[in-house]
Design brief:
Distance between the termini: 32 Å
Number of helices: 10
Strand order of the largest sheet: 2-3-1-4-8-7-5-6
Helix content: 25-40%
Structural class: alpha/beta
Length: 357
């Protein structure tokens, strides 16, 4: 089947990367067909009844909707009518089903001037097949998904519930600190790690537990480590608040209390200030703050590499682009780099690494 993902416009590269990472993690065989104007279209070896579509919609953070593509054309009324007339509407509609037609996409094309007319034009063709319109509560929703050069005739399959991320914002948790990663970005990090339900997930700098929460929400077994006891207590409190089991312990990210090749996925936000760093003598005599950071990051990467299973991924967030050269020393392969702008004076650099198989 052909699927279209309507991606959020909040970042240039992360939404698409998240979708592809989830497809790979779920072992969905697919081929990318098009990526334009915030729309990703793939051919996937899935059926419309597949439970994996439910899993996808529940996991994704930076996607608005998932559609089944029933046809595509250039933005031309005659071609659109032909697409609708030839579409196998009966395959997705029962006799008692009602429908509505919506238009999505703000991109200017030759349909722009008649945008408000398009639902009526398409709706009339579907009505001729014997189905009734219900604009308030339709059984099925057909969508005209517009890009600058293409019109997709789609059936809405799933919508991503954004409320779940609003409800988990740091200020609503029992324990929070300013400057932590927002839930939606944390979910993207978890998804980029290739994590699946029941697998073992590690955050070696867990802080208040925001990334752990998102890993727990997708059904993983979670381990969090932090050098500060107050962070560990707070992270435990936050996990309990959301009803999530997990192990959170006081520990040193440069000496992880885990065996070799035992962890399925890692995602972490590297600490930026000395108060958050591991309290070990190897850093106390560092000549400068930058050297202090470099030593900590390198030792933590070495440990992440040691505990991660071969062929699995680690997603690392730092506040400096200079971090990227460190992964070479830990025998990681660089898969992706993303820059996420938090505000005027802070960028977060998201790096996806893979341990050699």
């Amino acid at each position: 089947m052909q699927l279209a993902f309507e991606l959020s416009g909040e970042h240039e590269t992360l939404p698409k990367a998240e979708v592809l990472a989830c497809l790979q993690a779920l072992n969905v065989v697919y081929e990318e067909r098009m990526f334009s104007d915030g729309i990703l279209v793939i051919d996937a070896q899935l059926s419309s009844e597949s439970e994996l579509l439910d899993v996808l919609s529940q996991r994704l953070g930076m996607t608005h909707h998932i559609y089944e593509v029933k046809g595509m054309c250039v933005p031309d009324e005659k071609e659109l009518v032909e697409i609708v007339n030839n579409a196998d509407i009966e395959a997705v509609m029962d006799e008692e089903d009602t429908f509505a037609v919506r238009v999505r996409g703000e991109h200017k094309n030759s349909f722009s001037l008649k945008r408000n007319e398009l639902p009526t034009i398409v709706g009339e063709r579907i009505k001729r097949k014997g189905y009734k319109v219900n604009l308030k509560n339709p059984s099925k929703t057909f969508v005209l998904l517009l890009t600058a050069h293409t019109c997709f005739f789609c059936l809405l399959s799933h919508s991503v519930k954004k409320k779940q991320f609003e409800e988990k914002k740091p200020r609503f948790r029992p324990f929070f600190l300013p400057g932590v990663i927002m839930p939606k970005v944390a979910r993207v990090m978890v998804n980029l790690s290739g994590l699946n339900a029941k697998e073992l997930f590690l955050d070696p700098f867990c802080g208040t537990g925001g990334i752990l929460i998102e890993a727990g929400m997708v059904g993983a077994r979670i381990i969090g480590i932090d050098v500060q006891e107050k962070m560990v207590r707070g992270a435990k409190e936050n996990l309990k608040f959301f009803g999530l089991p997990g192990d959170v312990v006081v520990g040193d990210a440069s000496k992880l209390p885990l065996g070799d090749n035992t962890v399925d996925a890692v995602a972490t936000d590297m600490p930026y200030g000395r108060s958050s760093f591991v309290s070990t003598s190897r850093y106390e005599n560092a000549e400068s703050h930058s050297l202090f950071l470099e030593r900590l990051y390198q030792h933590a990467l070495d440990e992440i590499h040691r505990v991660l299973k071969p062929g699995r991924k680690a997603v690392i967030v730092s506040n400096s682009p200079s971090f990227h050269y460190l992964y070479h020393k830990s025998d990681f392969q660089l898969l992706e780099k993303h820059i996420y702008r938090v505000h005027k004076s802070l960028n977060r650099y998201i790096t996806v690494l893979e341990k050699e198989k």
